[in-house]
Amino acid sequence: SQTETLTRLLTQLNPSRFFRINRSVAVSLEHLQNIEPYFKNRLVLKVAGYPETVTTSSGTTAEFRVWLEG
């Protein structure tokens, strides 16, 4: 499944540079262009090279904020 494939891929990537923001999307710290608050404790992100915005899940938002701080 897509979720299992992403999980396997993330084991090969540097966790200080890549973060899984929801079940189907991981983002690169270097490619984040904009972060805005969204409803229900979520964030909407603009990622360089990706035409659509992506949204954190409510369950990953707090951990994502910590990850951003390094």
Walk me through the structure.
With 70 residues, this protein is an alpha+beta fold. 27% of the residues lie in helices and 30% in strands. A three-stranded antiparallel beta sheet has the order 3-4-5, with no helix packed on it. Strands 1-2 form a two-stranded antiparallel sheet. A hairpin with a 6-residue loop joins strand 4 and strand 5. The radius of gyration is 12 Å and the shape is globular.
Summarize this structure as a short list of keywords or feature phrases.
70 residues, alpha+beta, two-stranded antiparallel ribbon, 5 strands, 27% helix, globular
The mean pLDDT is: 95
Give the DSSP E fraction (strand runs of 2 or more residues): 25-35%
Shape: globular
Which class of secondary structure composition applies to the elements? alpha+beta
Tally of strands: 5
Biggest sheet statistics: 3 strands, antiparallel
In DSSP terms (H or I, runs of 4 or more residues), the helix count works out at: 2
N-to-C SSE string, H for helix and E for strand:
HEEEEEH
State the separation between the terminal residues, measured CA to CA. Answer: 30 Å
| Poorly predicted segments | none
- The radius of gyration is 12 Å
Percent of residues in helices comes to: 25-40%
Strand line-up in the sheet with most strands: 3-4-5
Task: Describe what is shown at a glance.
By secondary structure, this protein is of the alpha+beta class.
Task: Give the topology.
Blueprint: H1 2-11, E1 18-20, E2 26-28, E3 32-38, E4 42-47, E5 54-55, H2 61-69
Antiparallel strand pairs: 1-2, 3-4, 4-5
